[in-house]
Specification:
alpha+beta; Heat Shock Protein 90; 5-stranded mixed beta sheet; two-stranded antiparallel ribbon; 69% helix; elongated; EC 2.7.13.3
Length: 464
C-alpha cells in the first residue's frame, strides 16, 4: 500500500472517530455527566495527528496504522461507557460495542503486514463481521429507544416538579390567608372545639351504651346456655358419687366381684371425662363473655370463625329466650370444612356476629307475632372460603328490609326498632369493625316479607 492510501485510511478513521465521539457525547450528555471524559474525547484528533507526522517522517506504509488508531478509539469509547454504566442507555451501548471491539482486535491481530487476512480466516471473519454489525445496530436502536423513554420520564418528572412547586406556592399563599384569618376566628374556633369535645364525649357514651346493651344480651344468653353443661356436670357428679358408694360396698365384702368393680371404675372414669368435657364447655362460655366485655386491645390473633359463629349464634338465641321464654326458632349452621383461621380481633368480630344474630332473631320474632299460618322462624349462618377471603352469611326469614331502608342501614343512629329497643349504633359499629378494623366488607341483601341476608367478607391474612 502506498503512502497516500495510508494517509487516506488514517484520515477516514479519524473522521469516523470524531463523529462517533461527538455523537456519543451528545447521546449520553457527557458534558454534564462526565466533563473530564468529554474533554478527552474532544482530543481524539491528537493521536491521529501524531500518526500523520510519524507516517510523513518515517515513510510508513502499513495499512494497520489506521486500523490500530480506530481500535484505540473504540477502546477509549468502551472506557467512557464503562465510566457512565449507571446510565441505562450507556450500559446497552457497552453491551452493543463489546463484540465489535473484540472483532476489530481479532482482525488486527490476524491481519498480515499488507493488511490482508489469511484465506483460512476469510469465511469466519466475514460471518463474524456480519454478526457483530447486526448486533451493534440492533442494540444502538435499543439504546435510542431507552433514551427516548428516559427523556419522556424526565419530562414527566419535570412537569410533576413544576406542579409540585406550584402547589407549594399555593400552599404558602393559603397558609398566609389562614394566618390572617386566625385572629378573627379564634373565639369561634374555641367554641367549636368545646362543642366537638362534648360531641365526642356523647358519642363515646353512646358507643359504650351500645356495647353494654350487647353485653346484656350476651350475659342473658350465657346464663341460659351455661345451664346445660352445669346440669350435666351435676348429674354425672351425683351418679359418680353413687357408683363410688357401690364400689366401696363391693370392696368391703368377703367375696369381691372383680368384674363388677372394673365395670364401676370404667363407668366412673367415663363420667369424669364427661364432667371434664362439660366443665370445659362452661369455661369456654364464661371466657367468651369476658372477652366480649373487656375493652379491645386491637391485637389480631388467628380466629376459628366456625367456632366463633356457632358460639355467638347460640348465645344470641338464648339471650332472646331469656326475655321471651315462649320464643323458639330453628338454628341452621353450614360451616365449611377445613376453613382457614383468620387473623382478626376476636372480641370485635364477636360483637359483630352477636349484633347480626340478635337482629335476625328480633326480625323472625316480629314476623312470628303477626300470626302467619305455618311460619317457622329460622336463623342460619354459613361459612365458605372464596380465594384469599372467608365469607360469613347470616340469614333470617323475618320481615325483610325495604329498599329505602337498606340504603341507610349502616348509618349511625339509624334504626327501625321502636324507641327504647335500639340505639341505631349496632350495625354502624359492625360496619366500622369489619371495614376499618379488618379491611373486609359487609353487605346486605333482602326481600321485604321474605328474608334478610348479611354477607361478611374478611381477608385471611391482614395487611401490615
Amino acid at each position: 500500500m502506498n503512502q497516500s492510501a495510508v494517509y487516506g485510511e488514517l484520515l477516514f478513521s479519524a473522521l469516523i472517530a470524531a463523529g462517533i465521539g461527538r455523537g456519543l457525547s451528545k447521546f449520553l450528555d457527557l458534558p454534564r455527566r462526565l466533563p473530564r471524559w468529554n474533554r478527552l474525547l474532544s482530543y481524539l484528533w491528537v493521536p491521529a495527528a501524531v500518526l500523520f507526522l510519524a507516517i510523513a517522517i518515517f515513510k510508513l506504509r502499513s495499512p494497520l496504522i489506521g486500523e490500530g488508531y480506530f481500535l484505540l478509539v473504540l477502546v477509549l469509547l468502551l472506557a467512557v461507557l464503562l465510566a457512565v454504566r449507571y446510565h441505562r442507555p450507556a450500559r446497552t451501548l457497552l453491551f452493543a460495542m463489546a463484540p465489535f471491539v473484540l472483532y476489530k482486535a481479532l482482525e488486527l491481530l490476524l491481519e498480515e503486514p499488507d493488511g490482508k487476512l489469511p484465506k483460512a480466516y476469510d469465511a469466519f471473519m466475514d460471518t463474524t463481521r456480519y454478526f457483530v454489525l447486526i448486533w451493534l445496530i440492533t442494540f444502538v436502536f435499543i439504546a435510542r429507544s431507552q433514551k427516548k423513554t428516559l427523556e419522556k420520564e424526565r419530562l414527566v418528572r419535570e412537569e410533576e416538579e413544576k406542579a409540585k412547586r406550584l402547589i407549594e406556592i399555593q400552599n404558602v399563599e393559603l397558609e398566609r390567608l389562614v394566618v390572617e384569618r386566625t385572629a378573627a376566628l379564634t373565639t369561634q374556633a374555641e367554641e367549636l372545639r368545646g362543642a366537638l369535645t362534648e360531641l365526642r364525649t356523647t358519642q363515646a357514651q353512646l358507643v359504650q351504651s351500645e356495647k353494654m346493651a350487647s353485653l346484656g344480651e350476651l350475659t342473658a344468653g350465657i346464663a341460659h346456655e351455661i345451664q346445660n353443661p352445669l346440669n350435666f356436670v351435676n348429674n354425672f357428679a351425683d351418679v359418680s358419687v353413687e357408683m363410688l358408694s357401690e364400689l366401696r360396698e363391693e370392696q368391703a365384702r368377703p367375696e369381691r366381684d372383680l368384674a363388677l368393680e372394673a365395670e364401676l371404675l370404667s363407668d366412673i372414669s367415663q363420667n369424669l371425662q364427661k364432667i371434664h368435657h362439660h366443665g370445659q364447655r362452661a369455661a369456654s362460655i364464661v371466657k367468651g363473655m369476658l372477652e366480649h366485655s373487656r375493652a379491645s386491645t386491637g391485637e389480631r390473633q388467628p380466629i376459628d370463625l366456625n367456632h366463633l359463629a356457632d358460639e355467638y349464634l347460640r348465645l344470641a338465641y338464648q339471650g332472646l329466650r331469656a326475655k321471651d321464654k315462649s320464643f323458639n326458632a330453628t338454628l341452621v349452621t353450614d360451616f365449611a370444612a377445613n376453613l382457614p383461621q383468620v387473623e382478626a380481633i376476636g372480641p370485635d368480630l364477636g360483637r359483630v356476629l352477636l349484633n347480626l344474630f340478635s337482629n335476625g332473631f328480633y326480625a323472625v320474632r316480629q314476623r312470628q307475632l303477626r300470626g302467619e299460618a305455618g311460619y317457622a322462624p329460622t336463623v342460619s349462618v354459613s361459612t365458605a372460603r372464596q380465594g384469599d377471603e372467608v365469607e360469613i352469611r347470616v340469614r333470617d326469614n323475618g320481615m325483610g328490609i325495604p329498599e329505602a331502608v337498606r340504603q341507610k342501614i349502616f348509618q349511625p343512629f339509624f334504626t327501625t326498632k321502636p324507641s327504647g329497643e335500639g340505639t341505631g349504633l349496632g350495625l354502624s359499629l359492625s360496619y366500622d369493625i369489619v371495614t376499618k378494623g379488618h379491611s373486609g366488607s359487609i353487605t346486605v341483601n333482602s326481600q321485604e316479607g321474605k328474608y334478610t341476608e348479611f354477607l361478611i367478607s374478611l381477608p385471611i391474612h391482614q395487611a401490615g
